[in-house]
Amino acid sequence: MSLESIPRLMQHARRHDYALGYFESWSLESVQGVIDAAEATRSPVIIGFNGEWLAERQNASAQELRLYAALGRAAATEANVPVGFIFNECPNDAWVEQAIGAGFNLVMPADPHAPLEDYTRRVKRLTALAHSHEVAVEADFEADALDAVAYAEGAAKFVAETGVDLLAISVGNEEIKLEGRSPLDLNRLEAVGRRVDVPLVLHGGTGIEDDSIKAAIHLGVRKINYGTYMKQKYLRVIREALATAEPNPHALLGDGSQTDLMVVGRHVVKDAVLERIELLGCCGRA
Question: What span, in angstroms and rounded, lies between the C-alpha atoms of 89 and 48?
Answer without folding.
Answer: 11
